[in-house]
Design brief:
Layout (H helix, E strand, L loop, with lengths): L4 E5 L10 E5 L39 H4 L22 H13 L5 H9 L20 E4 L2 E3 L2 H11 L6 E5 L5 H6 L5 E6 L2 H14 L5 E4 L12 E6 L8 H5 L1 E11 L6 E8 L5 E9 L13
Parallel strand pairs: 5-6, 5-8, 6-7, 8-9
Antiparallel strand pairs: 1-2, 3-4, 9-10, 10-11
Helix pairs in contact: 2-3
The structure holds S-adenosyl-L-homocysteine (SAH).
Length: about 300
């Protein structure tokens, strides 16, 4: 994997603060890599790691009217669930988190989630030594596991709350999905490369992230049967925001998505749908992601 990096000034749009683009240069396959945009001095995400509405709750007290005949049956309580914990390679995990913090990302819940998920379990054995470097790494089929800083920043931008339903397009190794489970157990992820989808499903189950639903398919169409979603994260770049994904975003929902061609500078966009259904977007930073594919390259 190429380690040559160059620094380019990023073009910024209104609403963002200084950011620097670090592009993995001369590596052939596109990789998702970026450097920090420290636009969150306050560490805004409200979610709490491991503490989610996944735990059964009593729900709000019934009003007398609701208690009367014909009232809706309360939804079945979900079994309690919390993300698995791991002890291997703690010093390296700390080092990785310190590096993310150096970029200005201060959100404690996000940092804790990044510390908790064992990235070395999500990379091929040949990459294990480098698993906690702040780099994208190859995972086969021309795809990459994202750079840890990018995973952290995209997670933060989703501003997840316990109980939110989140869709990821681009499962890859399953690492990003595992990080998301620290905020909500309602994680749906789609992968177009069949063998990657299958491997991620098995890996997530084996490691205990068994609440994640993995589907093999073209995420361009989203997952209508499971939507609408409070948050959508796309981890591959598209020329434009897929209309089906916009449709499947709930009012009040957030989407982070890299927009741009495979050989041009892409922008990481934060898209919001307000309660009235109006959509606004802003550019967060320049990034480089693998392209969103429209067919499984392992199928005829
Ligand atoms: N989030 C991943 C890294 C993603 S790399 C992780 O944590 O490891 C981008 C992934 O998007 C690749 O695995 C690629 O195969 C997948 N992909 C590309 N086009 C897609 C599409 N249309 N639908 C679903 N997945 C897609």
């Amino acid at each position: 994997m190429c380690r040559l990096r160059c620094l380019l000034p990023a073009l910024l749009t209104a609403g963002t603060v200084a950011a620097v683009l670090m592009v993995a240069g001369g590596c052939g396959a596109a990789e998702n890599a970026a450097a920090p945009a420290s636009d969150d001095p306050a560490g805004a995400a409200a979610a709490q790691p491991g503490k989610t509405a996944d735990e059964p709750s009593e729900g709000p007290a019934k009003t007398p009217a609701e208690g009367e005949a014909g009232a809706k049956k309360p939804p079945e309580a979900e079994k309690p669930w919390s993300p698995p914990t791991f002890t291997a390679r703690p010093a390296e995990r700390d080092r990785m988190v310190r590096e993310i913090e150096r970029y200005g990302l201060a959100d404690k819940a996000v940092l804790e989630a990044m510390r908790s998920v064992p990235r070395h379990e999500f990379v091929p054995a040949a990459q294990s030594r480098d698993a906690y470097d702040d780099e994208p790494l190859p995972i086969g089929y021309g795809q990459t596991i994202s750079q840890p800083y990018m995973v952290a920043e995209m997670t933060r931008q989703l501003d997840l709350e316990a109980g939110d339903k989140v869709l990821e397009v681009g499962t890859g190794s399953g690492y990003q999905a595992a990080v998301l489970t620290h905020f909500t157990r309602h994680v749906y992820t789609m992968e177009i490369v069949g063998p990657l989808a299958e491997a991620a499903r098995k890996r997530l189950d084996r490691l205990g992230y068994d609440v994640v639903a993995v589907r093999h398919g073209d995420g361009y169409h989203g997952w209508p049967a499971k939507g609408a979603f409070d948050a959508i994260i796309v981890t591959c770049a598209t020329g434009q925001i897929p209309p089906p994904l916009l449709k499947q975003l709930k009012p009040g929902g957030r989407m982070v998505i890299p927009v741009g061609g495979p050989f041009s500078i892409q922008r990481l966009m934060l898209v919001r749908k307000d309660e009235a259904g109006d959509v606004t977007s802003r550019s967060l930073m320049a990034v480089r992601f693998v392209p969103l594919l429209r067919r499984d390259p392992t199928r005829d």
